[in-house]
Amino acid sequence: MIQESPLSTVGIEDQKKSEKPVVPLAAATVRFCGDSGDGMQLAGTQFANTSALVGNDLVTFPDFPAEIRAPRGTKAGVSGFQVHFASHPVFTPGDQLQALVAMNPAALATNLQDLTPGGILIVDVDSFGERDLQMAGYKSNPLEDGSLSKFQLYPVEMTKLTRLAVRDFGLSTKEADRCRNFFAMGLVYWLYDRPLEPTLNYIVEKFGRRPAVAEANRRALMAGYNYGMTTEALQTRYSVGPAKLPPGTYRSVTGNQALALGLVAASKLSGCTLFYSGYPITPASDILHELSRLKNFGVRTFQAEDEIAALCSAIGASFGGAMAVSASSGPGMSLKSESLGLAVMVELPLILIDVQRAGPSTGMPTKPEQADLLFVLFGRHGECPVPVLAPRSPADCFQIVLEAWQIAVRYMTPVVILSDAYLANGSEPWRIPSAKSLPKIDVRHPSPQERDGPFMPYQRDENLARPWALPGTPGLMHRIGGLEKEDVTGNVSYDPDNHQRMVRLRAEKVARIAQDLPPQTVEGPDSGELLVIGWGSTYGAIATAVRQLWEYGESVAHCHLRYLNPLPKDLGHIISRYRRIVVPEMNEGQLVRLIRSQFLVDAKPVNKTAGKPFTVGELVSTFRSLLEEN
Amino acid sequence: MSQIMELATPTPPGVSKPLTQKDYASDQEVRWCPGCGDYAILAQMKKTLASLQIPLERLVFVSGIGCSSRFPYYMNTYGIHSIHGRAPAIATGLKCVRPELSVWVITGDGDGLSIGGNHLLHILRRNVDCTIVLFNNRIYGLTKGQYSPTSPTGMVTKSSPSGTIDNPLNILSVAIGCEATFVARTIDVYTKHLGMVLERAAAHRGTAFIEVYQNCVVFNDGAFSYATERATQADAILELEHGKPMIFGKDRNKGIRLRGIHPEVVELGTGITEDSLLVHDEKAPEPTLAYLLSRMRYPEFPDPIGIFRAVERPVYEDEMTRQIAQAIEKHGEGDLESLFLSGDTWTVK
Predict the structure, then answer these.
(1) Which residues of chain A have a CB within 8 Å of the CB of B82?
(2) Which of B58, B93, B334 has the CB atom closest to A296's CB atom?
(3) Which of A40, A359, A569, B287 is most buried when burial is the number of CB atoms within 10 A of its CB?
């Protein structure tokens, strides 16, 4: 039945001779969208990987519903994947789309607003039946009623053409239709002059064991590509050349992948066994999935019975000397707050990752938000300080883990990392570090010794850290726990002066971390009209917006905080050098409260809680209007 | 291997003298109420550990919140007095990374069955190698006398002035329902029996679960007097022995017989012989018999004490270690450089 090897690309070379004109572009943004069963995440991921392999800089943004399969054809079930690829550095997935692929009317209805006027709109005309239109809320067919006239509309009989392409492989209609995403990919690959080989290789790897499916997908991909080449409708294709990225070897990573890689690296660099515990929760589960496959690194993953057990088991593992890590999101973080308090009290090192999602309560599990900042800083009973760090991009998630573990072991404290759904699922090129060049993380455990009298588990070093004495070590037997401890001896104490001292010691210990932090960087002028202070995943949008304003000669600088607790020592000084301060956040104003209260400045909030990241455009116009104010 | 694993080898005892009960006691003043059943359990624990000569540094006591949970402070071992109900989860994490340690979870009826019920279920089904000692006094003591999940229905307490309307949990039925591999019951004042059960639990590989009837002198005094008073105890207690028929009573003339699927108390003589009695089998692969025994309750039946169930099943952390060893065998020991470079990469010059 299968005559060609799955890798064969016979015919392409011949046909290339009759290619249509190729228009070079500096950057483009493409979005694939369709039903959540249409394979749009796969299409987008493949397109992104291929773009990375041709050397583009890129940022991706997958946007999908929490429901695995919402009713087919409904707006609730629309899943999309956006890729911004460029021949220059890019920091965001792009505000506006140059091309949109919509597999059905619901996808068109929910995504059209992002397509730039004049943009390319490819739709599967076969899925625009009356019922499909109805489900998407269309009263008339948009392909026919002229409402899409400001776009370059290409209605393609994608279902029919895919079925024809795969008809020789004995697939059911349902199975044949599952190849439609490869047809769409093929067409967009042609449109943006992308090589097919990476995806052909992927097909072999993924479907090799099912030759008929592999061949059908390959045929669908080729059919889409060839359709672009031969159809008279499409007359122009585009190309985006390689970006000038710093030299090195790259791969594409999502934030969750980078966290997992960072955790394994930190474990190796510190010589501590990695213990990772988690309870399944969107959008943090992928970290557990990644790590559970890395058992040959000695990684011990534990799927706990609940969120509380996930963090408590990490505390137990930390007591045993492991690099203990747990991750969660909104509701899970709420459940973990009591255990995090215990970790603060017993002063054991561990990392807790909060992959933030839109809340409160269950909220919108797949959508990003930055609304847990005040919660992780203050959401525990008692005076309960923890260091908090936030990565600014998917690839930065790798580095943030190394820093978090360094802080955790040097200061004997739990550390919280604030990621979010946008970083977790979005991807970008990661310049792969040489494993040998990564600095070792120094971990010390007191050694066994004969002593007079009991061991002092709360005797502090120069960083105010207590010793990490491990069970199994003769002579160092000691008890820790949630009750207030007597300074030095660690015995239970209700003494008022002791409690006062211990509260301040715990606070001072975390405050002292600031002494290790590098000077806060500022992008843009050293002083001037406007300072934009951001944190976490908004880096890309803010950095791009600020750069656009520079082109107009605006006096704008960008200060992006990596350390939310303690804040960098020089932040107050930096703030004092600008006339206005603005703090954009994907929440209703959290960091801005800290800045206002700590530095007594009239910092302005810019807030968005729409379950979507800021667009560059909305930030540019907000900053501009602030600059225009007197 | 990391430095953690190197510590796995117990330090040789060297020239030190054998450990005595006193060596297991910390320097902290014990602060339970005078006459509390906890004292007896503490004493018996030290005695058992000394008889087993388990090195102090290899022992970790993990507890939650409640009177019983103060236990770790009184032991000269490693210990964590954690938060309410969470001791099993903490112990699980510890054992996952340090399988060689001897880990003991100390909990109570409120801590283990109410706020921490979920964690208890899961440590039992996973069969993490540790011993759980649940002090059951059928009351919340540390919070000064509210009814607990094991308080009998109708019990008048500070929070149930009209009597509780809750149906109590039968702890051992729960543990056996979770297919715990070692399930036992003993009584604080039965010191010898308590010592025997602790010793058997310590020797068990997997989660050993022990319910100890423990008297709270202040808030629920005499809750188990039927089982501890000389006058009634022989008729109120059935001491289980593996392979032996179930006989009890002051004159050892009563027994447990199975009628259909229901146990019944019968009097020996009068035509009934030992041969017709149920014979205890703690090693039965199915937990059915153990469950049936756990349902027997005074006064209709004597409360069984002893080892209800002691079977072998793979230990959680052993399986975890095995999977890691297998992965290393299959893929080689993980190398960071090649992990970073896995998947599609490209080079910018």
Answers:
(1) 312, 315, 342, 481-482
(2) B334
(3) A40
Cβ-nearest to B97 among A320, A342, A346: A320
Q: Across the interface, which of B78, B331, B332 has its CB nearest the CB of A478?
A: B78
Tens of pLDDT, residues A242-283: 999 999 999 999 999 999 999 999 999 999 999 999 999 999
A516: pLDDT strictly greater than 80: yes
**Contact (CB<8Å) A309/B56:** no
Q: What is the mean pLDDT of chain B?
A: 94
The rounded distance, in Å, linking the Cα atoms of A377 and A387 is: 8
Which of B97, B106, B345 to probe the A interface (max A CBs under 10 A)? B97
Q: Give the Cα separation of A318 and A316 in Å (integer).
A: 5
Domain definitions of chain B by residue range: 21-240+299-331
Q: What is the mean pLDDT of residues A72-77?
A: 91
The string over A53-69, giving b where at least 16 C-beta atoms fall within 10 Å of a residue's C-beta and e elsewhere, is: bbbbbbbbbbbbbbeee
pLDDT per residue over B1-11, tens digit each?
Answer: 344 444 444 54
- Residue B16 pLDDT > 60, yes or no? yes
Nearest chain B Cα distance for residue A198, angstroms: 9
Residue B296 token pair? 């027997």
Rounded to an integer, what distance in angstroms lies between the CA atom of residue A202 and that of residue A125? 28
Residues of A in contact with B1 (CB under 8 A): 298
ipTM given for this complex: 0.95
Task: Report the C-alpha gap between B345 and A53 in whole angstroms.
Answer: 7
Asked whether the beta carbons of residue B348 and residue A320 sit closer than 8 angstroms, the reply is no
Distance separating alpha carbons of residues A227 and A233, to the nearest angstrom? 10
Instruction: Quote the CA–CA distance of B144 and B146 in Å, as a whole number.
Output: 7
Minimal CA separation from B324 to chain A, in Å: 5
CB-based contact, A279 to chain B, within 8 Å: no
**Which of A296, A315, A431 is most worth mutating to test chain B (most B CB atoms within 10 A of its CB)?**
A296
* Sign of the dihedral through C-alpha A28, A33, A38, A39: positive
The superfamily in CATH containing domain B21-240+299-331 is Thiamin diphosphate (ThDP)-binding fold, Pyr/PP domains (3.40.50.970)
Q: Model-level pTM?
A: 0.93
Tell me which residue in A53, A305, A482 faces B82 most closely, judged by beta carbons: A482
The domains found in chain A, sorted by start residue, are 12-240 (3.40.920.10), 251-437 (3.40.50.970), 528-628 (3.40.50.920)
> Per the CB < 8 Å rule, is A445 touching B3?
yes
